[in-house]
Design a protein that fits this description.
Distance between the termini: 47 Å
Oligomer: single chain
Number of domains: 2
Helix content: 25-40%
CATH superfamily of the largest domain: Alanine racemase
Radius of gyration: 22 Å
Largest sheet: 9 strands, mixed
Structural class: alpha/beta
CATH architecture of the largest domain: Alpha-Beta Barrel
């Protein structure tokens, strides 16, 4: 359920017509449904309610302050991968004690920031990073809580650019090396070992890879306990996929049953890092058709949103459904493309699309995750506005950039 439906011949987000948002805010614009996000948080909480757990929303999916603020109000924690994301969480009122810090390239300043903020723990991704955390903790007089991000060498069956749990990826630490590092860190007074972590990738649509990974992690926890290493948390990451094009995806309940069944007897608090599944289907990119161009036997629908606004199709070849804001009964095969001077600037290729005409509004669906957060100013195009819909009302939660904004930091 994504709370985008037709009523009276026009597409609405909750109770707000999308053409109203386009008139008042302009296009392109990202539109998010508060009800859709809240529902997904509730679904996760309900699915894991029988065991101790903490939902740590993956901020990289959508890092708007208003989105973070809503999630904090609903009791969520946060998974961050940079000092900037930690800054956003704290500025939005998120609790630092519900923050886990991931990422394979943490800097001294980021580690210091996390220590001073008293975050829940760092997910350590290498022996070199562990040494840096030890040294930084010593210099600041803090004790660092850590979990090691293990790499179980599991193929998640997703796009190679968003697969993170195999031996040839930059993420995590192989189990044998991780075991040795746990023993080493156990002797460091600057370190408090609190957990073990695993994250195998993003947009995973089968439970098999999770089953394989959780079994590996369960055996590893047992081994660590035999070595006298106490643990409080099992961080199983995120990555649960959503339906972009009607594909079958695991339910959160079935995912929870798998994870709980494999870990309940360990007596650990589960840390879960969902991102895409919380915000993905809660957002659309609203764009206006500028031109229709027929060339070389093809039809091009040229809109005002480009790859700088939505990078996923160009980066991953990702599929996003495209709906007309005004209901249409006819379709035509066309490419939906943007104004950027790159041949990779497309949203849809050779697709059966609504029969758009110049001036029509199109909604690019399932764009709430890795949409705005991956956007850029390429071709010196100002980044778009963001809008949050709550029931029959909406508010602009990020103003559209101006040309002056483009050069504000330049000399």
């Amino acid at each position: 359920m994504h709370f985008f439906d037709y009523a009276g011949g026009g597409l609405h987000c909750e109770g707000v017509p999308l053409d109203q948002i386009a008139r008042e805010v302009g296009t392109p614009v990202y539109v998010y449904s508060e009800a859709a996000m809240h529902r997904q948080v509730q679904v996760f909480s309900d699915a894991f309610q029988q065991v101790p757990h903490l939902l740590c929303y993956a901020v990289k999916a959508n890092s708007n302050l208003s989105v973070i603020r809503k999630l904090a109000t609903w009791g969520a924690g946060f998974e961050v991968v940079s000092g900037g994301e930690l800054f956003r969480v704290l500025r939005a009122g998120g609790s630092s004690e519900k923050v886990v810090f991931d990422g394979p390239g943490k800097t001294v300043d980021e580690i210091r920031h996390g220590l001073e903020a008293n975050i829940l723990f760092f997910n350590v991704e290498s022996a070199a990073e562990a040494d840096l955390i030890v040294e930084t903790a010593r210099q600041t007089g803090k004790r660092a809580r850590v979990s090691l991000r293990t790499n179980p060498d599991v193929d998640p069956g997703t796009h190679p650019y968003i697969s993170t749990g195999m031996r040839d990826h930059k993420f995590g630490i192989g189990l044998e090396e991780a075991h040795e590092l746990y023993l080493k860190l156990k002797e460091k007074p600057e370190i408090e070992i609190v957990g073990v972590t695993c994250h195998i990738g993003s947009q995973i649509t089968q439970l098999g890879p999770y089953r394989e990974a959780i079994q590996s992690l369960r055996e590893f926890v047992t081994k660590l306990r035999q070595e006298g290493i106490g643990l409080r948390y099992l961080d199983f990451g995120g990555g649960l996929g959503i339906a972009y094009n009607g594909e079958e995806t695991p339910s959160t309940l079935h995912y929870a049953e798998l994870v709980i069944g494999a870990t309940r007897e360990l007596g650990l608090t589960l840390i879960l890092e969902p991102g895409r599944i919380i915000v993905g289907n809660a957002g659309v990119l609203l764009t206006r058709v500028n031109f229709i161009k027929d060339q070389g036997g093809k039809r091009f629908v040229i809109v005002d949103a480009g790859m700088n606004d939505l990078m996923r199709p160009a980066l991953y070849g990702s599929h996003h459904q495209v709906w007309s804001v005004t209901e249409k009964s006819t379709t035509q095969v066309a490419d939906l493309v943007g104004p950027i001077c790159e041949s990779s600037d497309f949203i849809a290729r050779s697709r059966d699309l609504p029969a758009f005409q110049p001036g029509d509004l199109a909604a690019v669906m399932s764009a709430g995750a890795y949409g705005f957060s991956l956007s850029s100013n390429y071709n010196s195009r100002p980044r778009v506005a963001e809008v949050l819909v709550s029931g029959n009302k909406f508010e602009v939660i990020r103003r559209r950039e101006t040309y002056e904004d483009l050069i504000r930091q330049e000399l």
